[in-house]
Structure to design on (59 residues):
């Protein structure tokens, strides 16, 4: 019975990992893809704008 207790944790972790991968693959694309892409584009634009904005200092 020691071999069963030795194999249970890896089998459980493998099953959970497969479940996570399936959820990630299923949520890619679909109806919400355009909304998610727009949110990412807006966030990147804010970061780029903040990085390229001139600083007004008393130099």
């Amino acid at each position: 019975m020691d071999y069963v207790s030795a194999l249970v944790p890896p089998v459980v972790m493998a099953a959970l990992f497969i479940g996570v991968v399936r959820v990630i693959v299923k949520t890619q694309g679909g109806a919400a893809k355009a909304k998610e892409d727009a949110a990412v584009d807006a966030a990147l634009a804010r970061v780029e704008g903040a990085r390229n904005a001139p600083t007004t200092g008393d130099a």
Q: What stands out?
A: The mean pLDDT is 85. The helical segments are 2-26, 33-52.
